[in-house]
């Protein structure tokens, strides 16, 4: 029996977030327009304070994008030409692009197949002795909303004198051992791209740190190195979050905990509904709060399953189909420390199912029914 496609189910729907909070967002936008201050004004200052408070009183510095957040965090930590920075290949290319923007050299390691995050065992096996001496920093990526193994990573980094820069683009509100992602390392970078757990209506990002000196460096770097207007103390850039986006983010931040709880309920429904199916479901490490930015399943028939789902009105995405080290811009010129077997396997099998807080139970149940049907089809059907 074939399940009816009915109304298409999107993989994500940033418009739904606006609709859910339309009155508050419209009021916030109107407040900015009437105020007449559109860059680095009271909304940015208030959002920085509120985002920092959400993370236990850390210092937040708003910037123009998640990529800029990583780039400026690296520069604030003194990373530049001649330095090497460890990260993963199974990530958005922005992670590696930011390292190169800082003038440093990326060094890629394999992932743990359970969490899709940096495998510390690979790090210990392949980056020892002389190989580790030119490494200045490490960027663990909390991919899909699952935190990386931060206790092991921070311990190793302290032993070797590396800076820890957390890539939190997909982990707003995630936690490990009761401690939020973004509060483990020296500094962290967040993206507010519209589809994120905390998404703007446009681009945006923030750097988060408990270190006042690092926060001050980021503030200098984001606006031409100015302490005094029009006078640059250090070479900087232009990376400012505008007042409109800050005002919108202030509204959405108030609902982040509630929205993440809804994501967890959706994930639980997927787990219950897809148990026993031909799909490999995401696992959550012990004492971990997964933010479920994505709900990612695995199948060796990924492309066929995805095509069949699309034909039945269920949209999916692949995060990510080509590891960074295999992409044309980086192939053959980027260093990989050891095998990338798990990374390459994941890239050929992962599939992101519909996941956003406004996903209705009826849509979710229909997606699960279609998934059961599609995942058990004979190969090549």
Compile the SSE list and pairings.
Elements: H1 14-20, H2 22-35, H3 42-54, E1 59-63, H4 66-76, E2 84-88, H5 94-101, E3 105-109, H6 120-126, H7 130-133, E4 135-138, H8 150-160, E5 163-167, E6 175-176, E7 179-180, E8 187-191, E9 205-209, H9 212-222, E10 226-228, E11 231-232, H10 243-253, H11 256-274, E12 288-289, E13 295-298, H12 302-311, E14 335-336, H13 341-349, E15 350-353, H14 361-375
Parallel strand pairs: 2-3, 2-4, 3-14, 4-5, 5-8
Antiparallel strand pairs: 1-9, 6-7, 6-12, 8-9, 10-11, 13-15
Helix pairs in contact: 2-10, 3-10, 4-5, 4-9, 11-14
In CATH terms, what is the fold-level topology of the largest domain? Aspartate Aminotransferase, domain 2
Uncertain segments are 1-5
For the termini, the CA-CA separation is 14 Å
Which band does the percent of strand residues land in?
A: 5-15%
For this structure, what is the CATH class of the largest domain? Answer: Alpha Beta
Shape: globular
In what order do the strands lie side by side in the largest sheet? Answer: 1-9-8-5-4-2-3-14
Query: What is the fourth-level CATH superfamily of the largest domain?
Result: Type I PLP-dependent aspartate aminotransferase-like (Major domain)
Q: Residue share in helices? A: 25-40%
Radius of gyration: 21 Å
Would you tell me the structural class of the helices and strands?
alpha/beta
The sequence of SSEs as H and E is HHHEHEHEHHEHEEEEEHEEHHEEHEHEH
What's the β-strand tally?
A: 15
Number of helices, counting only DSSP H or I runs of 4 residues or more: 14
């Amino acid at each position: 029996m074939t399940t009816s496609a009915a109304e298409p189910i999107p993989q994500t729907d940033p418009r739904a977030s606006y609709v859910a909070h339309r009155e508050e967002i419209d009021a916030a936008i109107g407040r900015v327009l009437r105020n007449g201050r559109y860059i680095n004004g009271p909304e940015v200052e208030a959002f920085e304070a509120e985002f920092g408070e959400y993370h236990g009183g850390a210092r937040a510095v708003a910037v123009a994008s998640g990529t800029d957040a990583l780039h400026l965090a690296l520069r604030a930590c003194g990373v530049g030409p001649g330095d090497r920075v460890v990260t993963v290949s199974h990530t958005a290319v922005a992670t590696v692009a930011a390292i190169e923007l800082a003038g440093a050299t990326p060094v890629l390691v394999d992932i743990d197949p359970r969490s899709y995050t940096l495998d510390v065992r690979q790090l210990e096996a392949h980056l020892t002795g002389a190989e580790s001496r030119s490494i200045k920093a490490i960027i663990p990526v909390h991919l899909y909303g699952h935190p990386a193994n931060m206790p092991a990573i921070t311990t190793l980094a302290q032993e070797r004198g590396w800076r820890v820069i957390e890539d939190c683009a997909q982990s707003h509100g995630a936690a490990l051992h009761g401690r939020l992602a973004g509060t483990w390392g020296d500094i962290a970078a967040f993206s507010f791209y519209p589809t994120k757990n905390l998404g703007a209506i446009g681009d945006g990002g923030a750097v988060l740190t408990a270190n006042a000196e690092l926060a001050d460096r980021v503030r200098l770097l984001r606006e031409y190195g100015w302490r005094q207007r029009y006078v640059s103390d250090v070479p900087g850039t232009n990376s400012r979050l505008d007042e409109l986006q800050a005002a919108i983010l202030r509204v959405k931040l108030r609902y982040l905990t509630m929205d993440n709880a809804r994501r967890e309920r959706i994930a639980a429904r997927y787990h219950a509904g897809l148990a026993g199916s031909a799909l490999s479901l995401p696992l959550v490490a012990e004492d971990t709060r997964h933010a479920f930015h994505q709900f990612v399943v695995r199948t060796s028939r990924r492309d066929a399953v995805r095509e069949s789902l699309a034909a039945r009105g269920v949209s999916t995405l692949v995060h990510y189909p080509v590891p960074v080290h295999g992409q044309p811009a980086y192939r053959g010129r980027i260093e990989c420390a050891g095998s990338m077997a798990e990374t390459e396997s994941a890239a050929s099998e992962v599939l992101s199912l519909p996941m956003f807080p406004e996903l209705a139970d009826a849509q979710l149940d229909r997606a699960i029914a279609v998934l059961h049907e599609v995942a058990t089809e004979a190969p090549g059907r």
